[in-house]
Amino acid sequence: MNARNRADLARLIDPLETVSARWGNALTDSARNMLLMEVGRLSLAYWAWDEQTWTAFVASVTGEIRHRRRAHLVAWGYLFGGHRRLHHRVGMPKLRPLADFVFGHGAVDPALEQICTLLERWETQPKSQPELVRSSVLDALLSAGSPCLGDVTLGLLEDLVADHPASSARRRGLFKMSRVLAANGYIPEPLTGSHQQRGTRPETVASVPPEWLEVALRWRKFSTNEPGTVRTKFPLLLVAGRWAAEKHPEATSPQAWTRDIAAEYIADTMTAVRGQWAGHNRNRTGWGEPLGVGGKAGRADTIRSFFCDLIEWEWITPRFDPRRVLALPLSVRAGRDPGPRIIDDAAWAKLMAAGLTLTAEDLRAYGTPRAKAAGWHANYYPIEMIRALVGVWLFGGLRMDEIRRLELESVRWDQATDPDSGETYRVCLLHIPTNKTTGAFSKPVDPMVGELIDAWKTIRPVQPDITDRKTRQRRQHRFCYRAQLIGSAYLNDKLIPILCAKAGIPESDSRGALTSHRARATIATQLLNAKDPLSLADLQQWLGHKHPSSTRYYAKILQRTLSAAYKRADCFARNVRTIQVLIDRESILTGAAADGEQPWKYYDLGEGYCSYDFFAKCPHRMACARCPFYVPKQSAQGQLLAVKDGIDQMLERLDLTDDEREALEGDREAVTALAERLADTPTPAGPTPRELGTNDSFIPLTQLMETVSRPAHEDAE
Q: Where is this region: Disordered (predicted)?
């Protein structure tokens, strides 16, 4: 070997020996020789290899003995080629030897200790399974090129998660690691399981005109609405863009919309069907069916608020008033009945019984199929936490978001005094965090809620501070376990089906699926229909609503409550009375009544009778003016009626005016006042009481009785 060859060989060997001098592994020389042979075959120095070349070379190393040299080869590819994801490309299962080769022996121990210690403290992982997270931590550190946790970024973690299947242990470990990094301030927030699904799919926006899509994307970025509201409105904005491309290709930009185009869009929305202008959508349920009231309102309200924002932000020059032109037609808006979707009393009672008797055995076992087959039974969440969650759901009347965001110190106990008995009793006040309509507030709940929450607080393990999504402040949360908030879908998808099965009721009824939000409407309706109900203003404050109109969507007066209130009001029956009537059958049979020769009906006035057939229409019925229709009981005709055969008795209802009812229920002065007001009113015979000279000697009606339609117990009273 000449001097030049020796120099070239030394140039290849010396760097390898320099970095591997501290490895102290007998396989180093063998691995170095394998690398040099590949350099000779390729006629290319190893530091010039790209990642694909390194991957192919390491993958070609097979056999048990040769396989043990892969860590050395990957370490050289990492150090000399800068290929930090080479270990992932070749599928290395064990990363600790590689990390020691790259960073130095024991350099990653502080990071591993910090991660594993906190996760065990938070009860995020079993103490017997530390390797599930260690490999994920090593993967992140190697990819970051540093043994320090502070050099791991959120973007790097998101890229790593995307490289692993959803079911892989390493991917789950990255999520757990992110919680520690977020708790220590290394990254702004932990990973979320849906971060890859956020936003609209590319195939969905492909059918939207570029000019419209550009403005819609910009609006989504700057909108100050709730994230959930923005996610709901954005696809509806794309619907309007597709509509414009189909109906008005010349107006595919919001700036080009005129009053006529806007009015046409609203008109087409009123006749649209589901899926029309929706673009690519995997959910095709109900496609082709007419849009419901909610669908029409959603499209109209979205496009109206969109144009209002564009005009207010001075992105477009206003050409029409969107509040008028893009308003939802009144005929459609009138159909938006609040209609609270309450759960019927029987099903709700069974749900409450099931929730208050819930045990760990009722919950679904958590674990791998192998562990379950071996008889290992565990719950993902402690039963004390689940009981507290169920108690808040059954008695708190909260939104699911409010339940998840309850603070650790959310319960405060107070005392109150019963005004009737003077006894004191405990009051449980639940502190509700800032919500979508109001700021934080406290409201009374059943003491059982506080007791269940305190029981969970007693055994709750230490948990990290988590950033509140509304206030952006880091704080402790009540329903936090394994270093994360309870799942947003856990109550609806997991717990409520368990309660329904335990209660023996279906998971849905005529109003739809039983959900966490329907409990809020059920509780609100019960409070509004209780024996001593909350007023609408009180209920509005208890629910945390800003406007009373919002409360109408959660509470309504039940039919039975309305019927009972209507009965108690008695606004019509209070003016109804009955009067005894004598019927002369002889006058009817002989035809004398038909010929007008003789009366056939006599109303009993107490001191006499009124023979006027239309007594109910007589204005003087409460104070008879003694017109020719009046028959005194002491007269011959009156005495004859008392002893005559063929006289039937019956009761007839009279509807009194308010003045007549007051006169009837008042004293003689009230009757006198009524008579004076009627002094110049003609009697059925024609003359007025003043003309008859009877206004000072009227006959007050004393024979009116309470209507027979009233219950017997009211008559007894």
A: 677-698
Q: What is the pTM of this model?
A: 0.72
For the chain, what is the radius of gyration of the CA atoms?
43
Give tens-digit pLDDT for 32-64. Answer: 888 989 998 999 999 999 999 999 999 888 766
The pLDDT, as a whole number, for residue 96 is 92
pLDDT at 476: 95
Say yes or no to pLDDT of 130 above 80: no
For residues 404 and 424, the answer to whether their CB atoms sit within 8 Å is no
Q: Which residues pair with 699 in a beta bridge?
A: 624
Q: Residue 689, Cβ neighbours under 10 Å: how many?
A: 25
- Contact between 456 and 388 under an 8 Å Cβ cutoff? The reply is yes
Are 629 and 610 within 8 A, CB to CB?
A: yes
Q: Which 3 state secondary structure label does DSSP give 445?
A: strand
* Rounded distance between C-alpha atoms, residue 394 and residue 386, angstroms: 12
Average pLDDT, the chain: 85
Residue 651's CB: how many other CB atoms inside 10 A?
12
Q: What is the DSSP string of 77-126?
A: HHHHH--TTHHHHTT-S--HHHHHHHH-TTTTHHHHHHHHHHHHHTT-S-
The answer to whether the beta carbons of residues 507 and 515 sit under 8 Å apart is no
State the Cα torsion 624-628-630-636 to the nearest 10°: 150
Question: Which residues fall within 8 angstroms of residue 576, CB to CB, at 6 or more apart?
Answer: 653, 654, 655, 656, 707, 709
Low-confidence winner among 195-204, 387-396, 420-429, 540-549 (lowest mean pLDDT): 195-204
**Residue 251 tokens, joined:** 């107006």
pLDDT exceeds 60 at position 356: yes
pLDDT at 666 over 80: no
If we measure between CA atoms, which residue out of 59, 63, 67, 65 comes closest to residue 94?
67
584 membership: H or E segment, kind and range:
strand 576-584
Domain ranges of the chain: 3-103, 109-183, 207-333, 345-551, 573-716
Of 458, 460, 450, 414, nearest to 430 by C-alpha is: 450
